Amino acid sequence: MPELPEVETIARGLRPALMGRRVVGAQVLWQKTLAMPPLGQFLEEITGQQILDVSRRAKYLKLQLTAFHLFIHLRMSGDLTIQEAAYQPQKHDRLILRLDNERQLVFNDTRKFGRVWLTEHPEDVIGNLGPEPFDPAFTPQVLHASLIQRHRQMKPLLLDQSFLAGLGNIYSDEALHLSGVHPLRVSDTILLEEAQRLHAAIQNVLLAGIEHNGASIDWVYRGGNFQNYFRVYGREGQPCPVCGRPIQRIVVGQRSTHFCPECQVN
Description:
Blueprint: H1 4-18, E1 23-28, E2 34-36, H2 39-46, E3 51-57, E4 60-65, E5 69-73, E6 78-84, E7 93-99, E8 103-109, E9 115-119, H3 123-126, H4 140-148, H5 154-159, H6 169-179, H7 192-211, E10 248-252, E11 255-259
């Protein structure tokens, strides 16, 4: 599933092509792609809307429209491309927005898990999300206070979007290794110094992911090459870049989790 760096990369790539454009029509090719509103209402409300901004919140792509907010969650295999007017829908295309410059924004989703929301009230979609990792208000002290208020294993907690928005399986593994925190460590045992290291690690791995345009692995994502810089994720049996011990893989909360048993002691 695309995580914060992948969605940020997509948003940055789409922004020049979409900013200021007007939606002149829409084609919904698989109705369940629409989380809200119903099909007829969506087609009526989206038509004529101007795209004022293209941004990201957590793992959601956000299009600020004249009177609405359009949220797109790519889930496992979603992708967004700009196509010419002559483009014909392909097998896995789920939604097409026709623009006023004879181009089309195409949402392609092989596995059909992606969803689209059109709403006047952003909190209906993103109201339960935790802080953004780069929000100035999200300090190491705030992270530490949030950790010790809970009694949860670190890996599942970092994946909880209501705790911290944007991290997924890859970047949580990378941040935990960089900070030296074991994925099964219980959150209320984390010391302030460890929370400071984890805070810096989270921001550093996300910035590195964005710098390399995300990682092209585990999904139909056309992104960058951050997979060439993984410390632990997907490297079971390979040497730790710090100590040389073989990276181990365990399953935590039904998710593959990679760590170094030497650098990350529980």
